[in-house]
Automatic annotation (TrEMBL):
GO terms for biological process: exocytosis; protein transport. This is Exocyst complex protein EXO70. It comes from Lasiosphaeria hispida. Involved in the secretory pathway as part of the exocyst complex which tethers secretory vesicles to the sites of exocytosis. Also plays a role in the assembly of the exocyst. The keyword Nucleotidyltransferase does not apply. One of its GO terms (molecular function) is phosphatidylinositol-4,5-bisphosphate binding. Belongs to the EXO70 family. It is found in: Bud; Bud neck.
Length: 643
């Protein structure tokens, strides 16, 4: 029974399971059918969406265009509203412009012009035909406003600028030259800032000196500078004309120093004005434009002085050296303070600097020409003026050693030996730096070399001319050369040349001193011939010499009659020649040092020979003095008198 019950339970469970499977299969089939329906719906939906997109795409683009158009219309409406505002306020701005900057107030006036410029720019950018009349009216107002501003700048600047001032008042009292007042700096600076900005915008970055206010400034202030410096420029040329044209120029006697000092003070003050009014990039151009008329006048003045110097080279070459130093100092000081004008001043100085360079060689050539042109020389050997004149020239050069050293360094050692080389040497127009005016060892050495060259040229020239004019009379030429050497040496010792030529002086002059001595003592050699004896003793034995006391009587006994006559002739000839030499020595025009030098030379050459001859042969006339005119004491006294 139990088995039957269990079998029925399993059968019921199987049936229940089959029923569940059938249910699941039925649901799966429904799901499959539903899926197919969904897929069919999706296909239809995709086809419908594609059609919708094809229709909606153009509508979306048109919508965006309409949105952009709407935005543009809104912007135009806004711009029109904005453009109407200046037109509406034009009357207010016009009233301010008509009042001018003085009545309306500078800040208010500038703000009004700026508003007008902005409105004008906006209207031009819109390019609307309906605003053309307003644009024209705004342009007229802006132009009127700018013109009034420029006129106000001109008026204010002229009111602060005197026609001229007295520069000597500031120089003598060591006062700085005047500048514009601080309150005017502010007003002028504001005006320039606006006008220069407008000028740059309209001119595409044109040069600052072309700005209207820059032109006004340069015109007004340049007239003031020129008027102030005019009298000093004229004084510089007038003081170059000396009462005595032959007088050597002395340092500081020309007005160029005061002229340059005033110019430096004025231009530095002017640069300070410009720096307080104009923008940094405008300083240099405006300063150059303002100074230009004064620089032109300086160039003209220097050309006139240069012409004067060339005409009076011997006496006024020193003015050229002084100008080189003064204008170079002016240039260096201005460049240090402003950074400007060096090229302009170099161009102005160039003619004078070239003259200064060539003068060194031309002075040497002039020395040669003047000596060669001499038609006569003193027959007593007296010195000629060109000796002292040449040395005075060298003495005067010491006062200008700074610029001369600079010029000589630029020429190079020996560069003065020809005029052509001096004119070609030394580079271009550049102004030497301040350091080049420091007189170092090189500058002194080169100047000393120039001095010795000058002395050599002078002495060689006068010797050559003396040999022609004095017909080769050696003693006179010797006196002449010795006098020249003595004067040269004295003028060196008594001046600032002495320390500069120390060491070179002896070397330069000893050669000529020895030559002078040789020429002068040539007569002594002729006289000495009479004191050389060639004798024959009767016993065939030459009298002893230098062996103790000489017995003249014994020597004479040993001579034959022919030798005795020869001794008498020698004494007679010596007396005549010696007396003639003494007479000439006393007649020659000699410097004290020369007379003593030659007296010593003559004594040293003749006295020992005569004493020897006298010791041996004075008994030839047995003390009667017929042939033996001088004993040793007498001839010594004569030599002493020659000193």
């Amino acid at each position: 029974m139990a088995v039957g019950v269990n079998g029925n339970g399993r059968h019921a469970a199987d049936e229940e399971a089959r029923a569940e499977v059938d249910v699941l299969n039925s649901r799966l089939e429904k799901t499959t059918q539903l899926t197919k329906k969904i897929q069919a719906c999706l296909g239809r939906l995709e086809a419908t969406g594609k059609s919708v997109r094809e229709v909606a795409g153009p509508l979306n683009g048109e919508t965006k265009k309409l949105q952009v158009l709407g935005n543009n219309i809104d912007a135009v409406i806004t711009a029109i509203e904005r453009l109407r505002q200046p037109a509406d306020s034009k009357n207010d701005e016009e009233q301010i412009i008509r009042m001018g900057p003085d009545k309306a107030g500078l800040s208010n006036y500038l703000a009004s012009i700026k508003r007008l410029n902005k409105a004008l720019g906006d209207m031009k950018a819109s390019n609307l035909r309906s605003t053309q009349q307003t644009v024209a009216e705004l342009q007229r107002l802006v132009k009127s406003g700018n013109t009034q501003l420029e006129n106000s700048f001109d008026k204010l600047l002229r009111s602060e600028t005197p026609r001229s001032i007295e520069p000597l008042h500031f120089i003598t009292k060591s006062k700085p030259f005047p500048t514009l007042s601080q309150d005017k700096f502010a007003r002028l600076g504001l005006m320039n800032s606006y006008v220069a900005g407008v000028h740059r915008q309209s001119g595409g970055g044109a040069a600052p000196q072309e700005s209207p206010v820059a032109k006004i400034y340069a015109e007004v202030r340049s007239q003031y500078l020129s008027s102030t410096l005019g009298n000093l420029a004229a004084a510089s040329t007038n003081t170059a004309k000396k009462k005595n044209p032959e007088a050597i120029y002395r340092s500081g006697t020309n007005g160029i120093g005061t002229y340059a000092q005033a110019m430096e003070g004025l231009l530095i003050a002017e640069y300070e004005n410009i720096c307080n009014i104009f923008m940094r990039e405008d300083w240099g151009p405006v300063f150059q434009a303002t100074c230009q008329p004064s620089l032109v006048e300086l160039s003209r003045t220097l050309r006139e002085l240069n012409a004067h110097i060339k005409t009076h080279m011997n006496t006024d070459c020193y003015l050229a050296y002084e100008i080189v130093e003064i204008v170079s100092g002016l240039s260096n000081n201005l460049e240090r303070r402003t950074g400007e004008l060096k090229a302009s001043l170099a161009a102005s100085l160039k003619p004078v600097r070239e003259t200064a360079k060539s003068s060194l060689a031309e002075l040497l050539e002039d020395t040669k020409r003047r000596v060669a042109a001499l038609q006569m020389m003193p027959t007593d050997g007296a010195p000629i003026p060109i000796i002292s004149e040449t040395m005075q020239r060298l003495q005067s050069m010491v006062d200008f050693l700074r610029p001369i050293s600079s010029i000589m360094i630029s020429l190079g050692d020996g560069g003065w030996k020809s005029v052509a080389a001096a004119r070609a040497g030394g580079g271009g127009e550049a102004i030497p730096s301040l350091a080049s005016f420091d007189i170092g060892a090189d500058g002194k050495e080169i100047f000393a070399h120039y001095c010795t060259d000058t002395i050599d040229v002078l002495m060689a020239s006068i010797e050559a001319r003396a040999r022609v004019l004095l017909q080769n009379r050696k003693p006179v030429i010797g006196v002449f050369l010795a006098n020249s050497v003595t004067i040269i040496e004295r003028m060196i010792q008594d001046s600032e040349l002495s320390p500069l030529l120390e060491g070179r002086r002896a070397q330069a002059l000893d050669v000529w001193r020895k030559k002078a001595t040789s020429l002068y003592t040539d007569t002594c050699r002729d006289i000495s011939v009479h004191l050389f004896d060639v004798i024959h003793t009767s016993r065939g034995q030459r009298p002893t010499s230098g062996q103790g006391a000489v017995d003249s009587a014994m020597i004479m006994k040993g001579l034959g009659s022919k030798d005795k006559e020869n001794i008498k002739t020698k004494f007679t000839a010596f007396n005549a020649a010696f007396d003639d030499m003494v007479m000439r020595h006393r007649q020659y025009s000699m410097e004290r040092e020369v007379r003593q030098m030659f007296a010593k030379d003559v004594q040293n050459m003749i006295e020992p020979l005569y004493n020897r001859f006298w010791d041996r042969y004075h008994e030839v006339d047995k003390g009667k003095g017929k042939y033996v005119k001088y004993d040793k004491a007498a001839i010594s006294a004569v030599f002493t008198s020659l000193y």
